[in-house]
Amino acid sequence: MRYKGINHIALATGDLNATIRFWRDLVGLRLIAGLGKPGYRQYFFEIGPRDMLLFFEWSDVRPLPEKDHGVPVKGSFGFDHLALEVETLEDIWQIYDRFKAADIWVSEVLDHGFIYSLYSFDPNNIAIEFSWANPEFDLRNTPRMQDSKPAFEAHNGSDPVSGVWPAVQEPTLKQERKIYPGEGSELRNKENKW
Asked: Which of 73, 92, 95, 139 is the most exposed place for a label (fewest CB within 10 A)?
């Protein structure tokens, strides 16, 4: 299997208009698709050539309680922050200046060694990070482990290890493969509302 990237990350909002103004008009992501019916919407924003950000609008969703990026929590939890990579260091400074001009809190630019980052929150209190990859420390080409006590499984290195999970014994035959219509299939069948 080969992965191309993250197709989309799905988040939720109770205020799609504020979310569009933030992600499209302030952050600069194109709004590329919208689906909706009474009580339910989903809108897609383009992050890059392969990656999208999706927001479901559900009427009873409230903004998250504010939680700083990377600060440990207790109890059930599954998401800390969303990090978007920009092409140039100048892009970081443009975002910084735009957030300051909009009077939206934004951190100072931080040097994390392999990336330079700044942090903020969207209207839903979703913690976001904007990062520029430092070309001197490309972790994709040269993975590094600096944990003084790595997790047991990390000792096997960075590449996937075969034999950990059962091998497929009976793959689905081509004549048995079925694809069913799902939410969004109407994007290719209906008149464009723009």
From this structure: 73
